[in-house]
Amino acid sequence: MAAVNLGRTGRKSPAASAVPFAPGALVPGATAAARSGREHVQEPTRYDAILLAGFGGPEGQDDVIPFLRNVTRGRGIPDERLEEVAHHYRHYDGVSPINAQNRALRAALEERLTARGVNLPVYWGNRNWEPYMGDAVRAAYDDGHRRLLAIATSAYSSYSSCRQYREDFADALVDTGVGDEIQIDKVRQFFDHPGFVTPFSDGVREALNDLRVQLSDLDVAREVEVLFTTHSIPSTDAAASGPAERDLGPEGAYGAQHRAVAEAVMAAQTGARPEWQLVYQSRSGPPSMPWLEPDINDVIRTLPERGIRAVLIVPIGFVSDHMEVLWDLDNEAAETAREAGIVCVRVPTPGVQADYVDGLVDLTLERINGTAVTDRAAVTQLGPWYDVCRPGCCENTRLGFKPALAGIAP
Fold this sequence. Notes:
Rossmann fold; alpha/beta; 4-stranded parallel β-sheet
């Protein structure tokens, strides 16, 4: 299947004030099967194309500040402040690895779709850098496609990892002027699909074996700590993540989902199992705003006093080795471990591993075939998650609800 060439608009779509509803629909911009707002769509749907939705990243020094302006749009942060947080991009010549990773993922996804008999083109659009989401929607429309199934490169529920993508779909439909003709559905959050979890389970197993070889006298159960890490988010956003009617604890669906995945990964291990905990990284908010804790570096500094000789970092919050992994883990966290005098090993992210890519095809086929909930793969008790986001799901408590697709308003 040939890759799709996207035009470059050089612009992020402005925020939409409203999106079109079909008569009688509860879900805006949705296909006929999803308009009623049922939690799981168990009716076959014919799609024309896949919309692979990425975060985006700069691809040169001149791109860094414009990219960060897009990321922080609406927050009024001056360029001087943005430059203070641009140093990790500058370290890599202004090039984020995320776009190259998404190009590779698109190619791998196209290959596996074709191999499994799914003849759908894959269009790739980003939230914050070229090719923008509007580029992808416009290209799909120009090629005659009207029903798109979106796959966001984020596995969990929160404003930044789910709803903000859904808002960008709405912005793109309105900005391109095709909102009355194109429908966009979105596959469920795939945090506990085996295609996403298995690469981490395998990675932990291999890393523990490597540590046993590296430190022949190592007591794995007593002297190794496994740190499952993910992006920190504001505590208020975490509490609002997931549907309001589900009591998932003070960290909402975001925290509950990550803990459930960590438990599944550890349950898949054999032999002596080390202690583990969920930690957070990459905080970017002001000190006055509470964010999820503990920070991974703070935790690593405490490990030697407990007799820990090796730390195993598992980036379960990330689908690829992008900047938050390369800089925040492979540089900063690794340096903290060296200063603490302990061995540090980091498990790879799924990237384009076969299990992960096949898992994305599985999610696509769920919606094409209208797979029954009881036949859907999930390795935790929380899933399979919703096909259609519930009312009030993942509110941004500072900005309120904006128009979004693939869910019941607000």
